[in-house]
Design goal:
By secondary structure, the protein is α+β, with helices and mostly antiparallel strands. Helix content is about 30%, strand content about 25%. The strands form 3 sheets. It has a 7-stranded mixed β-sheet, sandwiched between helices. Helix 5 (about 105) links the parallel strand 3 (about 90-95) and strand 4 (about 110). Helix 3 (about 45-55) runs parallel beside helix 4 (about 75-85). The longest helix is centred in the N-terminal third of the chain and has 14 residues, at about 45-55. It is globular, with a radius of gyration of 17 Å.
């Protein structure tokens, strides 16, 4: 399972991941999320599957990006897929905490928002991608302290009720600018 992959990753880098008798590994290897959750570590597989989901979108895609330093070549491909969806009539809503750092092609898709704290893509309210689009993974919290992601991975979650709850908890359909909350809208025209 996916947690076993994480333990293997840490093991390969000589990080301590076990306790006496490999109990942690045994516990992790027994975990199963079922068919509605998939944890992926391979950036190419993440991007391919995300492209498929974006390509199948029929009415709305919501994107939240905490940092603006997206990974290439995946960033350009995801942007093209989002623009293609928008050209098909799919509403694309996007907010980014560090909007100034976004590549120029991405700025035309979204808005600055002080509450875009998690990397998340929601497709048609049925599929959620936590950890996508792939980015440098450098997140700065309150007080200017931050964390850097050392293992790029994304969690794909399906199921309309679960995705609705995630979207609601992350408050994805609004944005906050200078302490004022407003509805997140589709950006039309060039970035400003």
């Amino acid at each position: 399972n996916s947690f076993s992959k994480l333990v293997d990753y840490l093991d390969d880098r000589d990080c301590s991941v076990g306790v006496k008798g490999n109990e942690l590994r045994k516990l992790i290897e027994g975990l199963d999320f079922g068919a509605n959750m998939m944890l992926e570590f391979d950036p190419l597989k993440i991007s391919e599957r995300l492209f498929m989901d974006i390509g199948r979108a029929s009415h709305k895609i919501i994107v939240s990006i905490p940092d603006g330093e997206l990974l290439n070549p995946y960033a350009g491909d995801v942007c093209k897929a989002l623009k293609s969806a928008k050209a098909r009539g799919v509403e694309v809503l996007m907010k980014c905490l560090n909007w100034k750092e976004l590549p120029e092609e991405w700025k035309a898709l979204g808005w600055q928002s002080d509450d875009a704290t998690c990397p998340l893509v929601i497709v048609d309210g049925k599929t959620a991608w936590y950890g996508a689009p792939l980015s440098r993974g450098k997140f700065v919290g309150k007080g200017g302290f931050g964390k850097v992601t050392v293992l790029q991975c994304a969690l794909r979650i399906t199921g309309p009720h679960t995705v609705e709850m995630i979207s609601s908890l992350a408050d994805l359909e609004s944005r906050v600018v200078d302490g004022r909350k407003q509805a997140l809208k589709d950006r039309c025209g060039p970035a400003q």
